[in-house]
Fold this protein.
Amino acid sequence: MIIDMTQVIVALISLVGVILATVVIPLLRAKTTAQKWDNAMFWVKLAVQCAEQVYNETGMGAKKKAFVEKFLLEHNIKLDPDQIDVAIEAAVLEIQKAAE
């Protein structure tokens, strides 16, 4: 009795394709998004630290924010305005905690 392995192999390839499409690809997308966010946060922190050095007087918040936004734009870091606000606040909080 000879078993035709072609159908078994086709079924296995189909199963692997389904697993890739439903499990692996979404995991890779989530990881890529997390990596992009981590990369953006690195640049935001750097920009906030630079802004703190350039505008080291109190009451310069608007200029500091404009500096950070310009810095991110120049370095092709694409975030929507709400994400930029959250990232800046997180970076400022982290800097303040480190200074304590």
